[in-house]
Amino acid sequence: MKARGISRRDLFKLGTAGAAVLTRADLQAAGKKTGPVCEEGGCCITPSGDFYNVERGNPLPYKLPIEKLREIGMVRETWQLEIISDPASNAKIEHPMLRSDGTALTFEKLMEIAKTKAVSYLKVITCNNLADPLGHGLWEGVPLRDVLWLCGPVENLRHVWYHGHHNEDPKQIFKCYLPMNRVFEDPPGELPVMLCYKLNGEFLSGERGGPVRMIVPEAYGFKSVKWLQRIGFTNAHQSDDTYANGNNDINSWLKTFARFGDLPGKLSTHDELTLHGNAQVGISGLKQVQYWLRDVSTPLPANDPHFTKAPWQEAQIVPFDGSGIAGFKGAPLHPVQFDPVTRMPRQWPMRHTLCRWTAKPIKLAAGKYEVRCRTIDANGNAQPMPRPFPKSGRNNIQKALLEVVA
After folding, report:
1. Which of 41, 136, 323, 387 is deepest in the core (most CB within 10 A)?
2. How far apart, in Å, are the Cα atoms of 286 and each of 122, 182, 381?
3. What's the rounded Cα separation, in Å, for the pair 325 and 43?
4. Residue range 253-315+359-406 in CATH 2.60.40.650
């Protein structure tokens, strides 16, 4: 039976300390699915059904009966997106999109826009309160700004806010904000915020946030709201994201960090150990992955909480091999990530994505060991620097235990 994900409500109930210490082992012990461990290929594409879920809603909207799904716009044929000026603000737009007068954006209209505006890009989804990525895929959609311009934005505009379906219960609304400048203008080398309707070439399932969800490329998963139904222009000078109520940094960019794949807890002196895993490539890119194997009888470096003085060894980042991209026939791959002629990455690894790493096989003497992994980002910062603060994303140095027997 498929294990359920942990809900955002559960995270809030755990509180600041509890939510900060959830690990893969914690979730596995609780019988919960813990996100992808990419074991092959250089691109680490996660099938839609293999994503780990962080969900909200009671009941979960996509699990409602089909008749109710049609009624609330949770299927493509009946989905509608309202875009308004915030009634609590003096933001001005000329052409709001409303259900009441039949001007709301339908899926059919979105597909018309997609004929000339759609793009695809790779992005990893990560919850800033969990230690491991939730999944990594090729997302397809229309840049948000290309839809917002149809509303005729005029003046007094500082943010857009947005939320998804919430079971007609105001207490279940999950609301996020984005600065207006981020929506309408991509910084150099950055990808657009997207109204997303496909993952890995297939229309989004309800579990993945369909019919349409937001995708914010540089942000943690809470900004990529599922089951999108309403967007508002506002002149509010600050945001009040729902996630802020959980003591989270609502403006945090993705961090760069390494995680182990599945490793044995015990092996023989006759066996070779191959360390391997995944690395999330955050806003600062990725230069190296390193590992450190320590006999537990050896003292830890003194006064060095981030182990900067430890004898780290270099691992190898697995090259891009086209897995997940070869044969893709969807919307054009975004030119920030891929050369449009060769369809090869402009660099590898790419920011906001997931890649694999591995180390050369080694043999060990009998004993007990600790093994750790870390990244060095493109700015030369060793994990967990430059932001070792858990409420802006978990990027602690991972430790695994190993026993070698004769």
Report:
1. 136
2. 16, 23, 10
3. 8
4. yes
Residue-wise burial string across 135-173, b where 16 or more C-beta atoms lie within 10 A, e elsewhere? bbbbbbbbbbbbbbebbebeeebbbbbbbbbbbeeeebe
Q: Using CA atoms, how far apart are residues 78 and 300, in angstroms rounded to an integer? A: 60
E strand or H helix that includes residue 124: strand 119-125
- Cα–Cα distance measured from residue 275 to residue 87, given in angstroms and rounded to the nearest whole number: 55
The DSSP 8-state label assigned to residue 142 in this structure reads: E
Q: What is the mean pLDDT of residues 298-326?
A: 92
Provide the pLDDT for residue 323: 76
Residue type, 122: L
Give CA–CA dist 256/247, Å, rounded. 21
Quote the tokens at residue 43.
């691109």
CATH, domain range 6-246: 3.90.420.10
Mean residue pLDDT across the chain: 90
Instruction: Name every residue whose Cβ is closer than 8 Å to that of residue 270 and which is 6 or more positions away in sequence.
Output: 363
Q: What are the residue ranges spanned by the domains of the chain?
A: 6-246, 253-315+359-406
Single pTM value for the model: 0.90
pLDDT at position 274 is 94
